Amino acid sequence: MVQRNTDVSVQVSGSHDTAACTVIEVLDRVSGKWAIGILIATAHGPVRFTELERSIKGISRRMLTLTLRNLERDGLLVRKVYPTVPPKVEYTATDIALELYESLASLTSWAERHRTAIAAARDAYDRAER
Amino acid sequence: MVQRNTDVSVQVSGSHDTAACTVIEVLDRVSGKWAIGILIATAHGPVRFTELERSIKGISRRMLTLTLRNLERDGLLVRKVYPTVPPKVEYTATDIALELYESLASLTSWAERHRTAIAAARDAYDRAER
DNA sequence: CTGTATCCTCCGGGATACTG
DNA sequence: CAGTATCCCGGAGGATACAG
Predict the structure, then answer these.
(1) Is the pLDDT of residue A7 over 90?
(2) pTM value?
(3) Domain span at A39
(4) Which chain B positions have a beta carbon within 8 Å of A127's beta carbon?
(5) Interacting residues of A65 by C-beta distance below 8 A, sequence separation 6+
(6) What is the mean pLDDT of residues B104-115?
(7) Which B residues 5-34 have CB within 7 Å of strand D?
């Protein structure tokens, strides 16, 4: 989770600072290397711990647990334990999480529209600066 | 900038993995403690270096420079130098940046709608776990 | 005024081993 | 199966000083 501005981050005037704060709230929830992946992986029904571990390539058991706990803490995931043996645990996205998932669509759209332009800008910049 | 999955991050099936990747592209552009603040501060016309330094509370000169360079490199900001003495430098948001700025609106909306629910979930979780 | 250059700290996250 | 517990490392970012 990136260290962010908790106090009034931008001091323009009017509503810009609160806008910044609000956006930052979301980003803090979604920051971290794995949160988005988990959100997406749980967006279509309950998923078990090991399923997640397998579907999210490269995640360590530790980070999977930690990220799940954070998402659960924020009310984005529900953790249900079946007291069987061996144990079974299911994680389910809440409505709030699903709404977030949809809100990310406009960002996805932005990235798709401008991905090549951004790559080009990057190339140009890098070629110029050396 | 948070360390993220560059390879296929989520292996569900169909388009979920590409969706994840695309979202992550944006987040990488916007991650870092200060990028959003700068985006917002430059969203309403050219701003000078020192103006930014003053309006974005708590930012160090180093991070201001670094973040500005990254945003410029991605084509989100244009840096214009007036060869006067003392020097004057203006940063202007590009159209791409402005579009991004607007796309963030749905996230802001999400945060506003659920902020209290999230806070409540957090409280409940913390009270339960001890 | 607009930056660079260094040094240093903190913490997100990986690797590995152990457990109910 | 679903986690904890430790140890460790790299890099984001702060503080400070210097410069064109």
Answers:
(1) no
(2) 0.90
(3) 18-129
(4) none
(5) none
(6) 94
(7) 31-34
Alpha helices (runs of H) in chain B, residue ranges in sequence order: 16-30, 35-41, 49-55, 61-73, 95-128
Question: How much of chain A, in percent, has pLDDT values that exceed 70?
Answer: 87
Q: Which of A38, A33, A103 is nearest to A76 (CA)?
A: A38
Q: Is residue A9 part of a domain?
A: no
Q: Return the CA Rg of chain A.
A: 19
β-strand A47-48 against A88-93: which pairing, if any? antiparallel
Span A37-78, pLDDT tens digits: 999 999 999 999 999 999 999 999 999 999 999 999 999 999
CA distance A86 to chain B (A): 24
Count of residues making up chain A: 130
**How many domains does chain B divide into?**
1
Kind plus residue range of the DSSP H or E element containing A121: helix A95-128
Q: Any idea what the CATH number is for the domain that residue B95 is in?
A: 1.10.10.10
Identity of the residue in A5, A26, A115 whose CB atom sits nearest the CB atom of B107: A26
In a domain, residue B10? The reply is: no
